[in-house]
Design goal:
Number of strands: 37
Bound molecules: (2R,3S,4R,5S)-2-(hydroxymethyl)piperidine-3,4,5-triol
Distance between the termini: 52 Å
CATH architecture of the largest domain: Distorted Sandwich
Largest sheet: 10 strands, antiparallel
Number of helices: 12
Shape: globular
Helix content: 10-25%
Strand content: 25-35%
Structural class: alpha+beta
Number of domains: 3
Radius of gyration: 27 Å
CATH topology of the largest domain: Beta-galactosidase, Chain A, domain 5
CATH class of the largest domain: Mainly Beta
């Protein structure tokens, strides 16, 4: 072990065993994770939380560390001996032995990764427990590498990425749940005796219902800007399981990793099973602090092009649905260009030859342009976009086909299917999932992007959709004794495919969409630039969905579009001003037919787009401070973004209900520099008179101690009055 590079402290000798206890400190700027790495012993947790001094680490460990009622906590508890507790790993060895006793053999440092190399006491079975810290991040990543030298394959029956003990007290968990068109809903509950299990079984997408990320508040019900919070995110695109077990002990225990259900994995001799990264963070600045840690880490190390602001786009879906034609696309491009937009994305409906894509029941897989709709093909559209001074993007759904398609006619063996059983179909009554565990299918999916790019080198953006789950467990590619590999191998195939695309097309911007927000996770972010938060574009419901989603994902990843009124999902009529004010808090775009907008509406959008360009770096690259949660039901929701220099900020305030003589809380700001003075300027103003504080300057101290008194209604002519009210304020420090 390289003792210089690890912060390693020898604290005591376990004389009876002749072992030397060495505590390894894996630290970030503000946090420490300490493990007892005594050779010949299991690897044990000693501490995770606010940064400890070297001296405190020694004393903490000498005086007990994280000792539970009976024993220390293993960092990676394995099943088999003393196994009445929850565990992270269980196997059936080649000879039928079901036990594991992992013992530390050595510790190795490879760059920013610390590897604890463990071996079973009896079998030639090995686990590397890995931790990575990054120079500019408050996130610690952990995962394991599992391999063996046994004579025959070993059956892995559980294989989580890691675990973490959390001291009992008034501990709460915040997590997201939902469904299609209602993603990212916040759920907060205290941790009581028993087990909370958050999991996904979709097979393809994994965030429509619950999310594989949690926040754990250590000192009472979660607060946004104060209190100790641990955040955990499983960085995986497939089925996950995240559980928190509260046993008769001093600690809750968190486990997270791939969901082992229907996924027993036969590990061949010499093969390495690498579990997905479990990202952990700790903050003393409440939920928003933990979110900022995830956002910074994500933008810097996980997200494709995480340091570049995104273009303002118009997506064709809600404007025309499947009714694609050249003239219509040209008109939409011209309209978004005239409003200051930078990109146009043609959604579903542009492809299919023998089976033209008229609705959702055919053609997926037949990625040739429908010449009747688009005589000049995709090149004609790219050319038109250039003429309008904007970029062009296109929708595809590479992981899917329809039973009504030329692809399915040629390759019925490529679909995910239970051998010997009838097919259960998805969307349109004909949709099927392609089997990405099959390398030929991976090649085919790669060719979809490759062919588009070869034909259209200037194609700038791809919207990558995925609208079906795995309903027919079975692979026609995998052998019958490896059918349980499907759910894992599908995602290995998906990531391989993404790696291949990125290797050839590093600059392409790719949105992940999966029937809306079905696939928001950090597992695919290295290959994607953003995701579609939800198929529901209703601005009020978006306040709730985007609030929850922002717990783990930064605004730069959250596609947020201005759409029509009445809304196509809720049929609620929300004025354009409010729709703009909500969309502007994420990655702004439009999802509307501009030709149906009035000139006045277009002018408002043009102005908003111009103003968004001013605050875009603050929103997309800045630091979030959530101020007033819509889930508190106080009648208002509010958040702000502050740039790294604390010179600029964007403040959002949305009324979530309207009652006469209702009293709304005055929202205190956060994250500003108390000693700086900020000038206030309202964006998207519709009022006849400016706000009382328009153009005025206030100290950061005042704004954070008092906030501003935002009027509850808009000062507009009587015939323009409505039940909605929202504000976007731009704050700029004055010299
Ligand atoms: C589902 C997506 O979420 C929508 O935005 C749209 O792209 C449709 N698919 C197209 O079929």
């Amino acid at each position: 072990m390289n003792k210089k590079r690890l912060t390693t402290l020898v604290v005591s000798c376990i004389a009876a065993l002749g072992l030397q206890a060495e505590n390894v400190n894996i630290s970030t700027k503000t946090t420490s994770l300490v493990v007892d790495a005594t050779k010949g012993n299991d690897l044990k947790f000693m501490y995770y939380g606010a940064k400890l001094s070297d001296k405190d680490i020694v004393t903490h460990c000498e005086t007990g560390g994280w000792k539970g009622q009976w024993n220390y906590y293993s960092t990676y508890p394995a099943y088999g001996v003393n196994c009445d507790q929850e565990y992270a790993l269980s196997v059936v060895h080649a000879n039928g032995d079901m036990a594991l006793e992992l013992r530390l053999e050595e510790v190795e440092k490879q760059g920013d990764v610390t590897i604890f190399k463990m071996k079973d006491k009896v079998q030639p079975f090995y686990v590397n427990v890995c931790y990575r810290t990054r120079p500019e991040s408050e996130v610690i990543e952990t995962w394991t590498e599992i391999f063996h030298q046994e004579k025959k394959p070993v059956r892995l029956t559980r294989f989580y990425s890691g675990s973490l003990p959390i001291r009992r007290g008034d501990v709460w968990v915040s997590h997201l749940y939902g469904s299609w068109a209602n993603e990212g809903q916040l759920c907060e509950e205290p941790l009581n005796a028993g087990m909370i299990v958050i999991e996904n079984k979709d097979g393809v997408r994994n965030s429509h219902t619950s999310h594989g990320e949690v926040m754990i508040s250590l000192d009472g019900k979660a607060r946004e800007n104060s209190g100790d919070v641990i955040g955990a995110a499983i960085c995986y695109t497939g089925n996950y399981k995240l559980s928190i077990n509260t046993h008769d002990d001093e600690y809750h225990q968190l486990f997270a990793g791939i969901n082992e259900e229907a996924s027993e994995y036969y590990l061949a001799k010499g093969e390495v099973f690498k579990t997905p990264v479990l990202a952990l963070t700790f903050s003393r600045e409440g939920l928003s602090g933990a979110s900022r840690n995830f956002h910074k880490w994500g933008r810097k190390y996980m997200l494709a092009h995480g340091d570049k602001v995104r273009d303002i786009l118009l997506n064709s879906w809600e404007g025309v649905y499947f009714d694609i034609n050249e003239q219509g696309m040209d008109q939409m491009m011209s309209d978004i260009a005239s409003m200051g937009g930078e990109l146009f994305v043609m959604d579903d409906g542009w492809f299919g030859d023998k089976y033209p894509r008229k609705t959702d029941n055919s053609s997926l897989g037949d990625w040739v342009v429908d010449r009747k709709k688009l005589p000049n093909g995709v090149p004609g559209l790219v050319k038109a976009a250039t003429k309008h001074g904007i970029k062009f993007g296109i929708w595809i759904e590479p992981e899917m086909t329809n039973s009504v398609s030329e692809l399915y006619e040629q390759h019925p063996d490529w679909v995910v299917k239970t051998p010997g059983r009838d097919l259960e179909m998805g969307r349109g009554g004909t949709q099927l999932v392609l089997d990405l565990s099959n390398p030929k299918v991976q090649d085919f999916a790669f060719s979809i992007v490759d062919n588009l790019m070869k034909e259209n080198p200037d194609l700038y953006y791809i919207k990558w959709d995925a609208n079906m789950n795995i309903r027919n467990h079975g692979s026609q590619y995998l052998s019958m004794d490896r059918q349980s590999h499907l759910l894992i191998d599908y995602h290995k195939g998906f990531i391989k495919l993404c790696e291949r695309i990125r290797a050839k097309y590093p600059d392409l911007i790719i949105q992940d969409c999966a029937s809306g927000g079905g696939r928001a996770n950090w597992g695919y972010m290295p290959y994607f630039d953003e995701f579609w938060v939800s198929d529901n574009t209703d601005a009020l419901q978006r306040v709730y969905m985007q609030w929850g989603t922002s717990y783990f994902f930064p605004a730069i990843t959250m596609a947020s579009h201005i759409s029509a009124a009445p809304n196509h999902q809720t049929f609620r009529t929300i004025p354009l001003k409010y729709r703009i004010d909500v969309a502007m808090s994420g990655r702004l775009g439009m999802e509307i037919q501009p030709k149906n907008m009035t000139d006045e509406e277009k002018t408002l959008c043009r102005k908003a787009i111009a103003d968004y360009k001013t605050i875009r770096p603050i929103v997309q690259l800045g630091n979030i401070y959530r101020l007033q949660s819509p889930y508190d039901k106080k009648g208002v929701a509010s958040l702000m973004y502050v740039d790294d220099t604390k010179d600029k900020a964007a403040f959002y305030w949305w009324k979530t209900e309207t009652f006469v003589n209702q009293h709304l809380p005055r929202v205190k700001m956060a994250g500003l520099d108390a000693s700086k003075y900020y000038r206030i300027h309202e964006f998207n103003r519709i009022d006849n008179n400016p706000l009382a504080f328009e153009g005025k300057t206030f100290s950061g101290e005042y704004l954070m101690a008092n906030g501003l008194d935002i009027p509850y209604t808009h000062d507009v002519d009587y015939n323009k009055k409505n039940a909605w009210s929202s504000r976007v304020l731009y704050l700029e420090a004055v010299k």
